[in-house]
Design goal:
Pfam families: Abhydrolase_1
Keywords: Hydrolase
Shape: globular
Strand content: 15-25%
Protein name: Alpha/beta hydrolase
CATH superfamily: Alpha/Beta hydrolase fold, catalytic domain
Strand order of the largest sheet: 1-2-4-3-5-6-7-8
InterPro entries: AB_hydrolase_1, AB_hydrolase_fold, Epox_hydrolase-like
Order of helices and strands: EEEHEHEHEHHHHHHHEHEHH
GO molecular function: hydrolase activity
Radius of gyration: 18 Å
CATH architecture: 3-Layer(aba) Sandwich
Distance between the termini: 37 Å
Helix content: 40-55%
Structural class: alpha/beta
Length: about 300
Amino acid sequence: MAEGDDLFPGFEPLWIEGPAGRWFGRAGGPETAPPLLLLHGFPQCHAMWHRLAPRLAETHRVIVLDLKGYGWSAAPASEHGANAYAKRRLGAEIVAVMERLGHVRFALAGHDRGARVSYRLALDEPGRIERLAILDIVPTEVQWTRIEAKPGANPHWPFLSRPAPEPEDAIRRDPDAYFEGLLRGWTAAGDLAVFDPRALTLYRQAWNVPERIHAMCEDYRAGGADGPDRAADRDDLAAGRTLPMPVLVLASEAYLNRDRPEPALTVWQRTFAPNAQGVQIASGHFMTEEAPEPTLQALRSFLAA
């Protein structure tokens, strides 16, 4: 048994050749069932879905992927984020990966950075996405507007998007201390108790690799204040583009919606998803691990509608 297999009973490991190297993932559920792709967030990997994926696989063909630069997927060299980690490019690469698995259209759920790839993919290629679930983010343009209005908010955004190698060098001095500090700070309880030790092992393995630290920073540089992700948002907002498919917004009570004058659902309804429905989850940022039952219930209801 390979490391992490026991987190996904009944799933098969996948190595998929993509346009920019190999992607790692797992697939489970009936091959004839509707396909559902799950994308993880920062600073994690596909293992963050382990409490939901096997149960979602009762009704769907579930694919969980490691994003490029994370987990066990390829971490190609890049500069300034735009070369390899712009969400538009990642979305196009994921479409190619899903086609190689035989799925032209699919439902999509993404958390954190995976949610940023997800909504960009859905805006760029809406015909690919049956349903879209966005977990615990607001659009990149709104995120930067908030940071600029309140300097010091979400300090990891401006830090990780600083020019190389400043953040990489700082993190490499003690990756576990840096990333575990973020995990603790974003949970409702302020500790690591909600994380399965087996999942934590996989997170630590990845974030201790220098190439993956660089890839994570490049991910944030692509989403930086002057990066291509924000520019793509601005272009689409100016053009009035919206998401035509059904959209579910899940927002954490103790992280994303905490002390916010405008709830996440309202943000999405006034920007890219005017018809979105929403559920607030009583958890910190890592709702799939902190509050798996209400998160699963919300996703199941949405996917079955």
